[in-house]
Design goal:
- This is SPTN1 protein.
- This protein is mainly α.
- The chain folds into 3 domains: 70 residues; 82 residues, EF-hand (Recoverin, domain 1, Orthogonal Bundle), CATH 1.10.238; 65 residues, Orthogonal Bundle (Recoverin, domain 1), CATH 1.10.238.
- It is 64% helix and 8% strand.
- It has 10 helices and 5 strands.
- The protein has a 3-stranded antiparallel sheet.
- A hairpin with a 5-residue loop joins β4 and β5.
- α3 runs parallel beside α7 and α8 packs antiparallel against α9.
Length: 225
């Protein structure tokens, strides 16, 4: 992307040639060019727009790379966030209105309640307090990505905390927890739920250990968007 932006910048010299030719034609009082529908001013404006778009895209990509490196959010998750935003940004404006933003969140797995128009929507309003606090009616790509990255980071932290709690239940911090350990440390309802939802633990040779459950896979599956 940076290379493509540099190519666009390099084309500025060609635009300069066109501007010089346009100035020479004006001096010769040739004001109508039958060979093209484009004007020097129009081409300059389009080049400026393309240059600004390249800078915005490059800045956004740099932010995503930084987010991946510093927050632990996977590249796949970042790509999914970006792809969903572009899908709902029908007019390619680089921002979503509130309804498009809500649809985008639902597509990413957010369980937002359906409400009639005009009815209070406290759950969505609390999200807007973070993403669009001044309520200008739109969420930019940068605001959206920052929100999704922060939510994903919260999930990762929460997942690690619960994983640590299961590890504390397991004797010697093993990567699995036994049926006995679950019933000794949790309520019957909690232990029943874990056993019905956890996969049997498989050792490095692919053998299933008796009464052993994979709490790591179980915990991480809880925090998939």
């Amino acid at each position: 992307r940076q290379r493509k932006h540099q190519e666009i910048r390099a084309m500025r010299s060609q635009l300069k040639k066109i501007e010089d030719l346009g100035a020479a034609m004006e001096e010769a009082l040739i004001l109508d060019n039958k060979y093209t529908e484009h004007s020097t001013v129009g081409l300059a404006q389009q080049w400026d727009q393309l240059d600004q778009l390249g800078m915005r895209m490059q800045h956004n990509l740099e932010q995503q790379i930084q987010a991946r490196n510093t927050t632990g959010v996977t590249e796949e998750a970042l790509k999914e966030f970006s792809m969903m935003f572009k899908h709902f940004d029908k007019d390619k404006s680089g921002r979503l209105n509130h309804q498009e933003f809500k649809s985008c969140l639902r597509s990413l797995g957010y369980d937002l309640p359906m409400v009639e128009e005009g009815e209070p929507d406290p759950e969505f309003e609390s999200i807007l307090d973070t993403v669009d606090p001044n309520r200008d009616g739109h969420v930019s790509l940068q605001e959206y990505m920052a929100f999704m990255i922060s939510r994903e980071t919260e999930n990762v932290k929460s997942s690690e905390e619960i994983e640590s709690a299961f590890r504390a239940l397991s004797s010697e911090g093993k990567p699995y927890v036994t049926k006995e350990e679950l019933y000794q440390n949790l309520t019957r309802e909690q232990a029943d739920y874990c056993i019905s939802h956890m996969k049997p633990y498989m050792d490095s040779k692919g053998r299933e250990l008796p009464s052993a459950y994979d709490y790591i896979e179980f915990t991480r599956s809880l925090f998939v968007n």
